[in-house]
Amino acid sequence: MIQIVFDSKTGNVQRFLDKTPFTDKQKLTGEEFLDTPFILVTFTTGFGQVPSTTQSFLEKNAHLLLGVAVSGNKVWGDNFAKSADTISKQYQVPILHTFELSGTKRDVELFTQEVERIVTKSGSKVDTIK
């Protein structure tokens, strides 16, 4: 079983995930120690940094990370969703998608396709709304 773990400061990431068909979503609280593979959806903070809550979570759980998707704001130019690049390089995982704010319908479709690709590749499954 693959779950989706997310970090959301302003609610954009949560609003994005609420538009997806996935039901096994867990918001970071800072105390998680996971025992199943997961996909991370987070945001970019400051001038392109990984949020400290996300970084702390990854220090404990990155060995189970399968891929990352990140929200950002295009007003930041080259720093748009830059935490995706940082996490991808640091933990050697693919960037599944980057999206602005809470994403569009097309962003949801692309992210869903990428999650399904990862799930198929891993031979596992992710819970969706039927």
Automatic annotation (TrEMBL):
GO terms for molecular function: FMN binding. It comes from the Bacteria. InterPro entries: Flavoprotein-like_sf, RNR_Ib_NrdI_bac, RNR_NrdI. PANTHER family: PROTEIN NRDI. Probably involved in ribonucleotide reductase function. Belongs to the NrdI family. This is Protein NrdI. It comes from Bacillus pumilus (strain SAFR-032). The lineage of its organism: Bacteria, Bacillati, Bacillota, Bacilli, Bacillales. The gene is nrdI.
